Amino acid sequence: MIDDLMGAVRTARSGILVIAVLTAALLSGCAGSSAPPTVSATPPSAADARPSAAPTGVLPEALQAKLHAALDDAMKQYDVPGAAVGVWIPGQGSWTAAAGLADVANQIPVTTSMSWPLRSVTKSFTVTLLLQLVDQGRVGLDDPLSMYVEGVTGGDEITLRELADMSSGNADYTGDAFVAEFTENPDKIFTLDELNGFVLGQPAQFAPGAQKVYTNANTNLLGAVIEKVTGQRFADVLDQSILQPLQLDGTQYLLDAKTWTTPHPDGYIQGDGGPQVQPDNLSIFGPAGSMVTTLDDARAWGETLAEGRLLTPATQARREAGAPLQSGPPYDVYALGMGETDGWWGHNGEGLGFTAAVFHDPSSGATVAVFMNVSNVPGKVHPADQTFRRFAEILRAATAG
Question: What is the pTM assigned to this prediction?
């Protein structure tokens, strides 16, 4: 039973924590492409990028009841301690709800104002930063990784595009060396260089472009590219290029959980003795998963991401080119730092006691966000993604009716 931080760390040796880490999906000077891409249009201004406020009014009571029933069923089926969800539909209204417990031991309920880990939804922010650099002519998607980061096996052949769409074939960082260091010191704040250091010189999984296998290392290497090109820390580029323009005041790139002062839930996995609290170390994910957010900020980001509000139309179109993953989270298609499920574009995330899903349907304008404080459900089920899918079915039926 994991009833404290050290108990959680001890379970790494028996595999529980290792699985939680591996499923995190849920991880100077300037340089540029020797042949910068032609920018097809002027990128959107910050003023044009911010989505409008949440739809006024509330969704019809009958629709709310169906959504709430779907949430209750999912929480019961997957043994979820607590959840916060939102559904926003232009012209129809919105529905947000909190259910269950944020802190099981102290019986503290979830609220809709809490902060939640984005886990791998962070990847959609990181790849957006890369694509903004593409629009600025500072990098090219077909640039080799070795132009920016040295020491990665096959780095001369791996392109930035292949890192973004999970087809690079490079090793992940969550191997024995990382697990041993994290187990020995679970409070250690890992830097991006340290996370990427676990990848350097490791054997490739497959030839670049031969498969699509989802790894956190792909996105963390892109974080290093962003730092190399801009000459700034990843957190500062993120703040200046996305968080401030979109006024995402409740969203942070957070490495030290001690500075996470906004009320937030504990993360759990279910064990024989009940919910087991997981370590609260955000730094182990880096640009692949270290961000936290709120429900309303997730709404704004979901729309921004799927509509390409921070990118030129040409770059957004290139972003949407993808294919199914051979190994990784459930998407119909995984493209450049975002996935598509039955017409909805967005991203999900999982790891160390949390799952998240943020998706937007361009055809209806609807956005869905689901946050749950449980991970590693038997059968590799992703509770937040499954809840999103149930919501999407309900919304499709309501639209058809």
Answer: 0.91
For 56, the 3-state DSSP assignment is coil
Whether the CB-CB separation of 209 and 320 falls below 8 Å is answered with: no
DSSP single-letter state for residue 243: I
pLDDT tens over the chain, length 401 residues: 222 223 333 344 333 343 343 333 333 233 333 333 444 456 666 556 778 788 899 999 999 999 999 999 999 999 999 999 999 999 999 999 999 999 999 999 999 999 999 999 999 999 999 999 999 999 999 999 999 999 999 999 999 999 999 999 999 999 999 999 999 999 999 999 999 999 999 999 999 999 999 999 999 999 999 999 999 999 999 999 999 999 999 999 999 999 999 999 999 999 988 999 999 999 999 999 999 999 999 999 999 999 999 999 999 999 999 999 999 999 999 999 999 999 999 999 999 999 999 999 999 999 999 999 999 999 999 999 999 999 999 999 987 75
3-state secondary structure of 180: helix
CA–CA separation, 294 and 54 (whole Å): 13
Question: What three-state secondary structure class fits 166?
Answer: coil
> Considering only the top CATH level, what class is 5-27+54-122+233-400?
alpha beta
Q: How many other CB atoms are there within 10 angstroms of residue 177's CB atom? A: 12
Burial class (CB in 10 A: 0-12, 13-18, 19+), 272: exposed
Tell the burial category of 330 from Cβ atoms under 10 Å away from its Cβ (0-12, 13-18, 19+).
middle
CA of residue 152 relative to chain centroid, distance: 24
Amino acid at site 216: N
Between CA 270 and CA 383 the distance in angstroms is 13
